[in-house]
Design goal:
mainly alpha; globular
Length: about 110
């Protein structure tokens, strides 16, 4: 996964506007396997994670994870993620400086 940090920071700022703090990185999140990694080699991409429960309560692909995803906290996280993604897209489309930064980072291989 080749995260575009210029785009990730814009997403983080959108999250902050929604009252969520975005960590720049999380050493507890593994690399895993996702098709998004393939996509990120061809277009600027991000793969943000939002908590749906307290740290250490469950991991992906566990029954408890499914329960947390369906909980009020899980639904709120999903809606916040969708709002932040929409705000990030809106900013990207309207902000030539952000588009240039995203492109420069992607082209530079950072």
């Amino acid at each position: 996964m080749k995260n575009n940090m210029a785009l990730a920071h814009a997403f983080g700022e959108a999250l902050a506007g929604l009252g969520r703090r975005a960590a720049a990185d999380d050493p507890d999140v593994g690399a895993g396997s996702t098709d998004m990694g393939d996509v990120s080699q061809n277009v600027p991409s991000i793969h943000p994670y939002l908590a749906i429960c307290a740290r250490g309560e469950t991991m992906c692909h566990e029954h408890a994870f499914a329960a947390h995803a369906a909980s009020d906290q899980g639904v709120t996280a999903m809606l916040d993620a969708a709002r932040a993604m929409a705000l990030t897209a809106q900013r990207f489309l309207g902000d030539a400086d952000l588009r240039a930064a995203v492109r420069a980072e992607f082209d530079g291989g950072s």
